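User: I'll paste a sequence; please echo it back and then give the predicted structure.

Assistant: Echoing your sequence first, then the prediction.
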Amino acid sequence: MTPSITSLFNSPLGGLTLTLWAYSLAVYAFKKGRCHPLLNPSVWATLLVIAVVLAFKIPPKLYQESSSILIFLLKPATVALAVPLHRYRHALRQHWKPLLISLVMCSGIAVVSSTGLAWCLGASKTVLLSMMPKSITTPIGISISYTLGGVPALTVAFIMLTGLGGALLAPLLFRFLNIRHPIAQGFTLGAVSHGIGTAAAYQLSDEAGAFSGLAMALHGVLAVILFPWIAHLLGIALVY
């Protein structure tokens, strides 16, 4: 790294500055591109940060330390997702039954499809257990992975890929399948693509973002309850 770049990332705000710059540039491109799904700001901001880190050979740990304030702000930001949901509480009361069924279905399909495909390709039990929480928000997913005997670092990679893929492809699938209801769009994104999907849902509408945050939270709770049982059944299946 050049001295100027080194001094920037030795600052507590170095990573924060880079992240905000990348996201602002991605949002600008998103608006200029008439909000095309392939220009999703979360996806391109992430790729831009990775490109800068690699280009200037910035140690990932140094970037993480200099952007730690974002991790701190993630917790109150997650709690704040309940505020917009309160505006749509009447819709929540009206649709709670189909939402509950959708949540269970999304959770089951997310686990079975990914681990089943990995199993068919010969992945080890450790990789399978690390992949199981891929659709869960990162803090809960890491805890689940550690508890089940997976590799948390590998789980984070799966979570990021799932979130970015969902944010990028879901709007295109909504158009292709003619899914226009904001509750259906948001709840699907939150249940499958966690926080990154929730950010993409807010690009669609406030209502979609509110229900995406709800799905993300509920999926985390459901995963904590069900995943140990699923992992136990997976272990039995692998023995036979």
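The radius of gyration is 19 Å. The chain is about 85% helix and 0% strand.
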